[in-house]
Amino acid sequence: MSGDAPAVGSYALDVRDGRIGEVMGRVGGRVQLRPLGGGREWDVPPEHLGEAVPAEVLRERVRLLNRDARRRVELG
């Protein structure tokens, strides 16, 4: 990723563990990411950010939708 911080609302990849998150802001030199399905934010040093290509973001969104649909069927 370039030296500039990614824009709030964009998506980034935490190269340390492969998680994709939505950029929520920047605090103390670190970029805050939130999981695509919501949840607790985590901090990533800028040097550990990678580009989240659109296909990866779409794949993660579909995975979450499928997970939620399975849970509704199990409960229903």
Description:
- With 76 residues, the protein is α+β, with helices and mostly antiparallel strands.
- Helices cover 29% and strands 33% of the residues.
- The chain contains 1 helix and 5 strands, in the order E-E-E-E-E-H.
- The chain has a 5-stranded antiparallel β-sheet.
- Strand 2 and strand 3 (30-35) form a beta hairpin.
- The mean pLDDT is 93.
Question: Any key phrases for this structure?
Answer:
alpha+beta, 5 strands
Task: Offer a quick outline of the entry.
The protein is an alpha+beta fold and 76 residues long.
Give the number of DSSP strands.
5
- Span between N and C termini? 43 Å
Widest beta sheet: strand line-up? 4-3-2-1-5
Which structural category fits the helices and strands? alpha+beta
Largest sheet: 5 strands, antiparallel
Radius of gyration computed on alpha carbons: 14 Å
Proportion of strand residues: 25-35%
The share of residues in helices is: 25-40%
Number of helices: 1
Mean pLDDT: 93
Query: How do the helices and strands follow one another from N- to C-terminus?
Result: EEEEEH
Shape field: elongated
Uncertain regions spanning at least 5 consecutive residues: none
Outline the secondary-structure elements.
Blueprint: E1 11-14, E2 19-27, E3 30-35, E4 42-44, E5 49-51, H1 54-75
Antiparallel strand pairs: 1-2, 1-5, 2-3, 3-4
